[in-house]
């Protein structure tokens, strides 16, 4: 690779040709402030906060888009640069509603941070902030145009990362605005509720719809029994949200915090992740049996159904392929249905007085909990969904020193899980967990991968494919002898679209496909700590796999509580009771 040399603040730096001035500054540890720039997105140069001075140039340069060139002399902290940045920040503040003390994003707002850093004056220019009503139509996302600085990160996120384009840049110049199709409310467009726009918005223009006060009220009500479940990715995100750095597993401290907050039962979504594997794995084997024995046609590839952003995406964009979805509900919704039936009965609580709360890495889970399909217990299965960030808020409100908490343990009955459930939090994890169980059911042996780690379905490539040969099977599975099970994994909806277009044309070679709406899977969910980047997501994924390997049980079918719930309540996978509580179907939506 050809390199070039330039100087930044009189320090020589050698960098690959084609890199930007911003890249060069990062290489030698010089921070240049940015707002429109994000590591996940293409460069835009919209905000001009990142300007630098180039010796001999007439104007200041936007460092995020200007390529570094041989012999350049760049200055990042001259008086001209500092004054320009301050003016830009003050102009942005004039377009931004200044309610910082009451803003949900206060303390984690990039504009607020830069205003403090540059001592920018909020009333240097007249207030021209948007006075449009706040859009609270969605159960997942709040859109407040008065706080939008038109950096267009959200637009680029929705188009580049997700391929959905629910948000658009409309009009020109100072009339530019971020809008939905025909400026409809967020709840009535193709928005998948994934929250990736929220994770990349530098201000409070896009935030999750929070249910903190509703949950506090339930906890404070002596007539209510409040059950909480926690998703696998939360345990590698919560510490980060509370200042402990990326990539730490804080399961025990999280459990202790939830108990101190006042939840009556602290249980684990990982339990129903294991249950999902039993149901989904059995469903896959049933489809293969039907197809290979020629008794009836089976729809392939079968696709996972535990990512609600992905479910809404397929409803809008590929409704003809809805039959390809597994009929399994997500682990969150399986848990909610069982909490108000099986669990309520076991502990002697009236389900009408039970409040089911989930803590998720995902904003789309808020939408999912409100779907009309999710009342199979006879009640709303999951009453409130909190993000990882919301739980961090509650822990701070309660005055808990999270880092010093002892390691607690989940309560019993629906609190035990395996490593297979933990890896649901990373892209490829559902596929890996399913293969660990399905292969052993069919052959009586563990999957032929070192230490159960199915490396081909791991990693951050957008689409991954693998094949596993099935040999020396049990007698009842003889029809599978010698078959190669072909699988694929996709994360991020722009990658999901590639897999779906192949399937739509009837050209998919796969039997089983895992799709997660968010980059990196749940560890990169829309409710996870901000900021996010490829490096941060990689650390969270590594922590997920470490948590898996640290557990004594690493295959879903080995979970004794799973065996107990089938023995005492469900009967068998895909049985009548399971279909009633744990399975569902989805319906097409229009594309507007």
Report on this structure.
- The chain is α/β, with parallel strands linked by helices.
- It folds into four domains: 3-77, Ubiquitin-like (UB roll) (Roll); 124-208, Alpha-Beta Plaits; 212-271 and 332-404, Rossmann fold; 280-328 and 417-582, Fe-only Hydrogenase (Larger Subunit), Chain L, domain 3 (3-Layer(aba) Sandwich).
- The chain is built from 19 helices and 17 strands.
- The chain has helices spanning 21-27, 79-94, 110-117, 153-161, 196-200, 212-220, 238-241, 251-261, 269-293, 308-317, 331-347, 364-369, 388-397, 419-422, 429-443, 493-504, 534-550, 560-570, 576-582; strands at residues 3-8, 11-16, 51-54, 61-62, 73-75, 141-143, 168-170, 177-179, 206-208, 225-230, 265-268, 302-303, 354-360, 384-387, 463-469, 484-491, 512-516.
- A five-stranded mixed beta sheet has the order 2-1-5-3-4, with helices on both faces. Strands 11-10-13-14 form a four-stranded parallel beta sheet, sandwiched between helices. The chain has a four-stranded mixed beta sheet with strand order 12-17-16-15, covered by helices on one side.
- Helix 9 crosses helix 11 and helix 9 (269-293) crosses helix 15 (429-443).
